[in-house]
Amino acid sequence: MATASSGNPESKVTELKTEASLKDISQQLEALKADLSNLAGAMGDYGKGKAKQARSTAEGYAHTARNTAEGQYDYLTTEAERYGREAQRMVREQPAAALGVAAGIGFLVGLFASRR
């Protein structure tokens, strides 16, 4: 950035200092750009790593929840079958009591349904 200067030595010194300052600023800006680019890349890599970790954790929780739900389903199915067999056995052994219970339940259902 040379400019026409008069023969004044002080103006030449000022001009050289200005050129040196501008060159330093330009170099610092380039270094800052490179640092920001590196930082952006590092942040991107960090974010990808955290996303992968979160996905892995969520998949683990989903797997655990599924296994628990399947276990509960199996347990409840077994219990429902057991209660069904027990009810059939009681109806065969005590048909009059079963008929009385069924009539009572029917009466209560009818009573509640008529109040609507």
From TrEMBL:
InterPro entries attached to this UniProt entry: DUF883_C, YqjD/ElaB
Superkingdom field: Bacteria
One Gene Ontology term of the molecular function aspect: ribosome binding
UniProt entry keywords in alphabetical sequence: Membrane, Transmembrane, Transmembrane helix
Pfam families cross-referenced by the UniProt entry: DUF883_C
TM region positions: 95-113
Domain DUF883: 87-116
Protein name in the entry: DUF883 domain-containing protein
Organism for this UniProt entry: Pelagovum pacificum
